[in-house]
Design goal:
heterodimer, A: Alpha-Beta Plaits, 5 domains, B: BirA Bifunctional Protein, domain 2, Methane Monooxygenase Hydroxylase, Chain G, domain 1, 2 domains, 9-stranded mixed β-sheet, 8 helices, 38% helix, 19% strand, ligase (chain B), Glycine--tRNA ligase alpha subunit (chain B), cytoplasm (chain B), aa-tRNA-synth_II/BPL/LPL (chain B), Gly-tRNA_ligase_asu (chain B)
C-alpha cells in the first residue's frame, strides 16, 4: 500500500473555478486508477488560489495480473484465419493450446497481462487528466501548446510508503514532476520538498498556506464575526462571498474598517452591493440594521498589522462610494422632479428590434395592468400608474452602475417622488417571482403589474415567433410563464388566460396565431400553443406537489383550461381522490364502463345517451346504481357550481361501491335487447357524470 | 526588500517604469502617433502579438475615451489618460515576478501591501481579440491588467504574448496619495516651477469634453468613418508586389492606421450619442472586420513571420 500525493501548482486560479476543479481532479484520477486495476481506501482534494492538490490513501502497489482465454479458429481452418488470430493476440503458434469444441478442435489463446506498478499507472492517469481537464475556460502560454486555466508551473507527484517517498516519473511538455512545492507567494518564497500528505499540509502551513478552503473560510468567518462582535456589531452573512474570498487568499487576514460618515445615509443595499461587487467586502451592521463598517480579507500579515492595507482599501471604498453617492443624489433630484426624464429616455432604449422600445412596452403593460386590476383586486388607476413608473429606474445612474439593484432603486425613487406606497412597492416587486423559490408578491397593485409585465413579454415573443426551444430560452420565457402561474395560484386569482392573451396581442397589434399551430410544446391538441406552453409549465410546477402529469391532463378538458387556478383546483381534488381506495377503484369502474359503452356504440352504430329508466332495472345492483345516481348528480352539479372540487369528488366516491357491485353481478349484454340498451344508457350516465370534473380516461393505470 | 523610496511625481513613476522594463530587456518604444482608445491598439501590441517572431516592448500610450470625459471634475475619470503597456512574446515563465518587480520599482512594497491576482478575462470586440488573465489588486484597488493573449484579429496567438497594462493616473494617485487626479504632482513638487496634473490637463479635459459631447460634427465624423473603412480595404486590396520597386511590400501598417482611425471615430460618435444600441454592434463588427483584415495582411509580412521560401 502507498499514499499518493499530487499537486498541480499554477498561476492564480479563478476563485469561482477552484472547488469544481479540485473535485474533477479527484474524480478523474481515482476513476483512472480504478479502471487500470488499482484500488484505494480514500481520496481528498484541496484547492488554493495557486494549487489543486489530491491525496489518495491506501493505494495498491501493483495492478493484478489478468488472464484472458480467447477461442480461435478450428485447427483445420485455413492458414489465413490462424494468422489473423495470432496477430490479434500477439502470440506465436506454439504458444496456442488446442481445445475441444462442439464443432471440433479449436485453437485457444491464453493471454496473460502482467500487473503494472502503481507509479506507471499514476503517471499515465495524471497525464491524461491534465491534458483533458474540463476547465470552463483554458489557455496556452509561452511557446507551448499545453492548456491549463492559467500557466501550470510545477507538478508534485509522490508515492509514499513506509520506507519513504518516491517521485512518480512524469514529464508533461517539459514540466517534470518532483517532490517540491512553494508556499505563500510573498510571505514564504522558495521551494521545499515534502514526503507525504501530512508533511505537505504541515509544511504548507509553516509556509503561510492554509490548504483547506473550508478551513480558510471558517477562519475568515470566525475572525470576522469575532471582530464585529467585539465592536457590538454583526457581519451580514453571505455564503457565496465567503466562498469566493476564501478562494482569493492562501493566508487570510481579516481587517475591519469604517465607512465614512458621508456615506452612511446611502440605502443599505447600495452600500452592500457596491462593497461586495467591486471590493468583495463583507458588510457589517449595527443593532438597527444600518451598515456602518466593512470587512476585507487580506492575503498576508504585515509589520504594521495591516494598517497600510486597510488605509488603502478605505481610500478605494471612499472613491467607490463617492460615485454611488453622486449617482444617488443625482437620481433623487430626477425622482423628486417626477421621473419624466427617465421615462422619456426609455423611448430610446430598444426592448427588442421587433417589439419596439421600452417606452412602447411600458405603454402596453400599463394598459394591461389597468385591465387586469379588477381581477386581482387592485385599483385600476394605481395599477396603471405603477406600471408607468415601474421601469423608470432603468434610466437612473445607480441602476446603470449596478443593474442588480433594478426595482429596488425604483421603489426608493418612487417613494422620494411622493408616489402612493403601493406604486413604489410595485416598482420593486413587479419583477418577482424570478425563480421557483423567489417570494411571490401579494400586494394587488404589484400583482397586476407583475402579471402584465410577464404576459406582455410572453405574448410578444410568441407573436414574433421567438419561442423557447430545447435548452435555449434566451428571453427567460419559461421563467415568465412560471411567474404568472405562481402569481395566479398563490394569490388565487381567476384569470382567463386566453382573454389576457387576446388583450396582449391587440396591444402588440399582432394577429392571433392560426389555430392548430403545428409548433406545439406538449403534443396536446390546442388551438393556441401559448396556452399549451402554460399547461406544460403548470405540470412542471405541480410536480412539487406530487401531482401527476396525467392527472393534470385529465383536468385540461372543458372550456376553462385557460383558468389555471381552476385547472389546479380540479387537479388537486382529483389527485387526492386518486390516492384513496375509492378513487383507484372508481377509475377502474369508469374505464370498464367506458370500454363496454364504446364497443357497444361502435357495434350498434348508436349513441346511448337517451337516459336510463329505473323501471327497467332487473337486479338489486342496477337499482342500487339508480339510487346512488339520484342524489349524486345534483350534489356534483352543486359542488361544481360552487367550484368545490373536493366535495364533487366525495359525491362521486359514493358511486364506487354500487358500480363495483354492478360489474360483479350484472351482465350488461342481457338477452333482452331492451334491458341491454337500458344498461348501456345507464353506463353512459355514469361515464358522463364521472367526466364532469375531469376526463378520467386520461388517467394512466 | 524592505523600505522602497517613494516616487514624488507622476512623471517619476513613468520614468521608473521605463527604466525598469529597459533593464528587463524590453525595447522602450514611444507612443503611437495616432488617437487610440488603449495601449493595446499600438501596432507594437496588436500586430506584433501575431506571428511566430519574438518581441519585447514597453511604452507609454496616451489613450482617449471620449465618453469618459467629465470636464476635469471627476477625481478619477478622464477622456485623455495614459496607459503603460508591456508586451513580451513568448510570455516568459517569470512574468508575474517581473511584474511584481515593477511595482517594487515604483514604490509599492509587497511586504506592506496586499497584492492579489483576481480573475479578469480580457476581450476586445473591436480587435477580435481575447485573452485570459487577471486584474491585479493592490489593497483592493485595480492597478494593472495582466493578460495572456490567446487570439488577435481572429488568429490564434502562437506563441502566446504576455501583456501588462498599467492605468498610470490611477496607479500614480495611489502611490502619491492624491485624492483627485488634478491635484497629483506632474513633476517634482520641489522643482522651481512645480506643476500638477491639473496644471497640464484640466483645461484640455474641459475643452475636449465640450467638443466630444456636444460639438464634434457628426456628419463629418460619419463620413470620415466610411472613408477610413473604405481606405483600409483599398490599401489591402493592392497586390503584394510594389510595381515601382519590384519588392514585396504588403501595406499592413498603413491599412491598420485606417482601422485605428475608424475605431476612434466610432468612439467619438458614441460619445456624441448618435449611435443606437442596435447600430453599436454593427459598427463594432465593421471595425473588427478591418482589424481582422489587417491581422491577415500582417501575417503575410516579414514581421508577421512570412518568409520568401514559403
Amino acid at each position: 500500500m502507498s499514499d499518493l500525493l499530487i499537486e498541480l501548482f499554477s498561476e492564480e486560479i479563478p476563485a469561482r473555478m477552484q472547488r469544481r476543479a479540485a473535485d474533477d481532479l479527484r474524480q478523474r484520477v481515482t476513476d483512472g486508477l480504478v479502471e487500470a486495476g488499482l484500488t484505494y481506501a480514500g481520496a481528498v482534494a484541496h484547492c488554493t488560489p495557486r494549487r489543486l492538490a489530491l491525496s489518495v490513501q491506501g493505494l495498491t502497489d501493483v495492478s493484478p495480473t489478468t488472464t484472458e482465454e480467447r477461442k480461435g479458429p478450428r485447427t483445420d481452418a485455413p492458414e489465413k484465419a490462424l494468422d489473423g488470430f495470432l496477430r490479434s493476440t500477439g502470440l506465436t503458434k506454439d504458444q496456442l493450446e488446442v481445445a475441444d469444441d462442439k464443432k471440433g478442435q479449436v485453437y485457444l489463446a491464453r493471454i496473460t497481462r502482467p500487473g503494472r506498478p502503481a507509479a506507471e499507472i499514476v503517471a499515465e492517469v495524471l497525464e491524461t487528466t491534465i491534458r483533458n481537464f474540463p476547465w470552463p475556460k483554458s489557455m496556452r502560454w509561452g511557446e507551448g501548446s499545453l492548456r491549463w486555466v492559467r500557466p501550470l508551473r510545477s507538478i508534485l507527484c509522490i508515492l509514499t510508503r513506509e520506507d519513504g517517498a518516491s517521485v512518480v516519473p512524469l514529464d508533461i511538455d517539459g514540466i517534470v514532476a518532483g517532490n517540491t512545492t512553494e508556499g505563500h507567494r510573498f510571505m514564504s518564497p522558495g521551494r521545499f520538498a515534502v514526503t507525504s500528505f501530512d508533511d505537505y499540509e504541515a509544511r504548507l502551513k509553516r509556509a503561510h498556506v492554509i490548504l483547506s478552503s473550508e478551513e480558510r473560510a471558517d477562519h475568515i468567518w470566525q475572525d470576522a464575526t469575532n471582530q464585529a462582535f467585539a465592536a457590538g456589531l454583526e457581519v451580514v452573512e453571505d455564503a457565496g462571498l465567503l466562498a469566493e474570498v476564501a478562494g482569493l487568499v492562501e493566508w487570510p487576514v481579516v481587517l475591519m474598517g469604517k465607512i465614512g460618515d458621508a456615506f452612511l445615509d446611502l440605502p443599505p443595499e447600495v452600500l452592500q452591493t457596491s462593497m461586495k461587487e467591486h471590493q468583495k467586502f463583507f458588510s457589517v451592521r449595527d443593532k438597527t440594521g444600518k451598515i456602518v463598517r466593512f470587512i476585507t480579507v487580506a492575503n498576508r500579515t504585515t509589520a504594521d498589522d495591516g494598517s497600510t492595507i486597510l488605509a488603502g482599501n478605505n481610500r478605494v471604498l471612499s472613491a467607490r462610494l463617492s460615485d454611488a453617492k453622486f449617482f444617488w443624489e443625482n437620481d433623487l433630484r430626477v425622482a423628486r422632479a417626477g421621473m419624466e426624464t427617465w421615462t422619456d429616455a426609455l423611448s430610446n432604449v430598444t426592448f427588442h428590434a421587433k417589439l419596439g422600445s421600452q417606452a412602447e412596452r411600458i405603454e402596453r403593460i400599463a394598459a394591461l395592468a389597468r385591465e387586469l386590476a379588477p381581477a386581482v383586486g387592485a385599483d385600476p388607476d394605481l395599477a396603471e400608474r405603477a406600471a408607468r413608473l415601474a421601469k423608470a429606474d432603468l434610466s437612473s445612474e445607480m441602476v446603470f452602475e449596478f443593474p442588480e439593484l433594478q426595482g429596488l432603486m425604483g421603489r426608493y425613487y418612487a417613494e422620494a417622488a411622493g408616489e402612493d406606497p403601493a406604486v413604489a412597492l410595485a416598482a420593486q416587486e413587479h419583477y418577482s417571482p424570478l425563480g421557483p423559490s423567489d417570494a411571490v408578491p401579494t400586494a394587488p397593485v404589484s400583482v397586476a403589474v407583475a402579471l402584465a409585465d410577464k404576459l406582455d413579454t410572453l405574448a410578444g415573443f410568441w407573436a414574433i415567433d421567438e419561442k423557447p426551444t430545447g435548452s435555449k430560452d434566451p428571453y427567460a420565457l419559461r421563467r415568465a410563464a412560471l411567474g404568472v402561474i405562481r402569481l395566479v395560484l398563490e394569490n388565487e386569482i381567476d384569470l382567463n388566460l386566453l382573454e389576457a392573451f387576446d388583450s396582449c396581442l391587440k396591444l402588440h397589434n399582432a394577429p392571433r396565431p392560426e389555430p392548430n399551430d403545428s409548433d406545439d410544446f406538449t403534443g396536446m391538441a390546442a388551438d393556441f400553443n401559448l396556452l399549451s406552453f402554460f399547461h406544460d409549465r403548470l405540470k412542471q410546477h405541480l410536480k412539487s406537489e406530487d401531482i401527476r402529469h396525467d392527472v393534470i391532463d385529465a383536468c385540461l378538458t372543458g372550456d376553462r383550461t385557460d383558468d389555471l387556478a381552476n385547472v389546479t383546483a380540479r387537479a388537486r381534488a382529483l389527485n387526492s381522490f386518486l390516492a384513496t381506495d375509492n378513487g383507484e377503484n372508481l377509475i377502474q369502474g369508469y374505464k370498464r364502463a367506458k370500454n363496454i359503452l364504446d364497443q357497444a356504440e361502435a357495434k350498434d352504430g348508436v349513441e346511448y345517451s337517451y337516459g336510463a329508466d329505473p323501471k327497467l332495472a332487473e337486479t338489486e345492483e342496477e337499482r342500487a346504481i339508480f339510487a346512488a345516481l339520484a342524489p349524486a348528480r345534483p350534489a356534483i352539479e352543486a359542488a361544481l357550481a360552487a367550484e368545490n372540487y373536493p366535495a364533487a369528488m366525495t359525491a362521486l366516491a359514493a358511486l364506487r361501491a354500487p358500480i363495483d357491485a354492478f360489474f360483479e353481478a350484472v351482465q350488461v349484454n342481457a338477452d333482452s335487447e331492451i334491458v341491454r340498451r337500458n344498461r348501456l344508457n345507464l353506463l353512459s350516465e355514469i361515464v358522463r357524470l364521472c367526466t364532469r370534473i375531469a376526463d378520467l380516461g386520461r388517467i394512466g393505470s | 526588500m524592505g523600505i522602497t523610496d517613494t516616487p514624488r511625481s507622476f512623471q517619476e513613476i513613468i520614468l521608473r517604469l521605463q527604466s525598469y522594463w529597459a533593464t528587463k530587456g524590453c525595447a522602450v518604444l514611444q507612443p503611437y502617433d495616432m488617437e487610440v482608445g488603449a495601449g493595446t491598439f499600438h501596432p507594437a501590441t496588436t500586430l506584433r502579438a501575431l506571428g511566430p517572431n519574438a518581441w519585447a516592448a514597453a511604452y507609454v500610450q496616451p489613450s482617449r475615451r471620449p465618453t469618459d470625459g467629465r470636464y476635469g471634475e471627476n477625481p478619477n475619470r478622464l477622456q485623455h489618460y495614459y496607459q503603460y503597456q508591456v508586451l513580451i512574446k513568448p510570455s516568459p515563465p517569470d512574468l508575474q515576478e517581473l511584474y511584481l518587480g515593477s511595482l517594487q520599482a515604483i514604490g509599492i512594497d509587497a511586504e506592506l501591501h496586499d497584492i492579489r491576482f483576481v480573475e479578469d478575462d480580457w476581450e476586445s470586440p473591436t480587435l477580435g481579440a481575447w485573452g485570459l488573465g487577471w486584474e491585479v489588486w493592490c489593497d483592493g484597488m485595480e492597478v494593472s491588467q495582466f493578460t495572456y493573449f490567446q487570439q488577435v484579429g481572429g488568429h490564434d496567438c502562437h506563441p502566446v504574448s504576455g501583456e501588462l497594462t498599467y492605468g498610470l493616473e490611477r496607479l500614480a494617485m495611489y502611490v502619491l496619495g492624491a485624492d483627485h487626479v488634478m491635484d497629483m504632482p506632474f513633476n517634482d513638487p520641489s522643482a522651481p516651477i512645480p506643476l500638477t496634473y491639473g496644471d497640464v490637463f484640466r483645461q484640455t479635459e474641459e475643452e475636449y469634453a465640450r467638443w466630444n459631447f456636444d460639438t464634434a460634427d457628426t456628419a463629418v465624423l460619419l463620413r470620415h468613418f466610411e472613408e477610413a473603412e473604405a481606405h483600409c480595404s483599398e490599401i489591402l486590396s493592392k497586390p503584394a508586389e510594389d510595381p515601382k520597386t519590384g519588392k514585396r511590400i504588403v501595406m499592413a501598417h498603413p491599412a491598420y492606421d485606417q482601422c485605428i482611425k475608424a475605431s476612434h471615430i466610432f468612439n467619438l460618435l458614441d460619445a456624441r450619442g448618435v449611435i443606437s444600441v442596435t447600430e453599436r454592434q454593427a459598427y463594432i463588427g465593421r471595425v473588427r472586420a478591418l482589424a481582422k483584415a489587417c491581422a491577415d495582411a500582417f501575417l503575410t509580412t516579414r514581421a508577421g513571420g512570412w518568409t520568401d521560401a514559403a
